[in-house]
Amino acid sequence: MTAILDRRIHAFRPDLAARALTGQVEAARFADPQPMRIVAASAPVRREPRPDAALDTEALAGELVEVYEREEGWAWAQLARDGYVGYIPDDALRPDQPAPTHRVAGLRTFVYPGPSIKLPPLTALSLGANVAVVESKGDFAVLADGGHVFAAHLAPLDQPEPDFVGVAERFVGVPYLWGGKTSLGLDCSGLTQLSLAVAGISAPRDSDMMEATLGRPVELREDLSGLQRGDLIFWKGHVGILTAPDTLLHASGHVMSVYREPLHEARDRIRAKSFGEITAIKRLG
Predict the structure, then answer these.
(1) Are 193 and 204 in contact (CB under 8 A)?
(2) Are the C-beta atoms of residues 77 and 66 closer than 8 Å to each other?
(3) Going from the N-terminus, what domains does the chain have, and what CATH number goes with each?
(4) Residue 272: count of CB within 10 angstroms of its CB
(5) Helix (H) or strand (E) holding 112
(6) Cα dist. 262→164, 222, 247, 269 in Å?
(7) CA atoms of 93 and 149, how far apart (whole Å)
(8) Contact 227, 242 (CB under 8 A)
(9) C-alpha–C-alpha distance, residues 36 and 82, integer Å
(10) Contacts (Cβ under 8 Å, ≥6 apart) of 18
């Protein structure tokens, strides 16, 4: 009997599936993954192999990806970090890349061709992107691919941020982008997942998965009392972070940016105009 699995986080199609799912799904053939890493600053993960297809999420530089098929400029792949499955531009991927040693700790940082801020940047990396540092040159960290990043903008991977809420607050003012996960644009669950990841806390990509798996439930009272900084507030299809017991931070399509607002005002507006009632409040730790 074929299992019912979530296509967002299980690699299977009618014609192809991950070999690990043999016996769980029906497919014409099964394949082992080829490990690769994202070498672009970021890469879209799309629902179909077309540049105009829906953006489901983004992968950041240095992320490990398990590739099951490469065809006509697209790789059908699964992100190792959160298991998300989709189509990634093939030119954003490379095999046999060195394991990252550091992550970008600033909201955004430039990569230069040499150890000088006067050189034209090669690209820019967003907070949470991973890089492999091979040596230091003055104020710069030299990357395995030859790029140079201002060293103070990096942090070792084994030193997570102490406060995921503080990380999320850095994104205030960043535009809302459905499926986005960078400082150029991100959505509600992208903001939450990325902020948690930088603080060393693994989380699934979408808000319904977060609600089902993260933290412990907190009693939902009509007056919204008893809440604290760091609580996650869930609606059907939306998630926000409390920066204070009465203040919500979220990436919102209402204003098309990451912003703070009084929790009561957000609750009442969302209840009346969009996602309906709060479905859960979860507390980590």
Answers:
(1) yes
(2) yes
(3) 17-94 (2.30.30.40), 102-156 (2.30.30.40), 164-283 (3.90.1720.10)
(4) 8
(5) strand 108-112
(6) 20, 15, 5, 11
(7) 21
(8) yes
(9) 15
(10) 10, 11, 12, 30, 31, 33, 66, 68, 78
On whether the CB atoms of residues 192 and 202 are closer than 8 A, the answer is no
Residue for token pair 């209402």: 254
Bridge pairing between strands 17-18 and 30-31: parallel
Let me know how long the chain is: 285
pTM of the shown model: 0.96
Amino acid 17 reads A
pLDDT digits (tens, 9 = 90+) for 224-265: 999 999 999 999 999 999 999 999 999 999 999 999 999 999
CA distance 137 to 149: 10
User: Where residue 30 falls among pLDDT bands split at 50, 70, 90?
Assistant: very high
| Long-range contacts of residues 46-50, Cβ cutoff 8 Å, at least 24 apart | 46/86, 46/87, 46/88, 47/86, 47/87, 48/87, 49/73, 49/74, 49/76, 49/87
Hunting for tokens 């609750």 — which residue is that? Answer: 267
What is the rounded CA–CA span in Å between residue 13 and residue 28?
Answer: 9
> Which residue stretches of 22-63 are H helix?
none
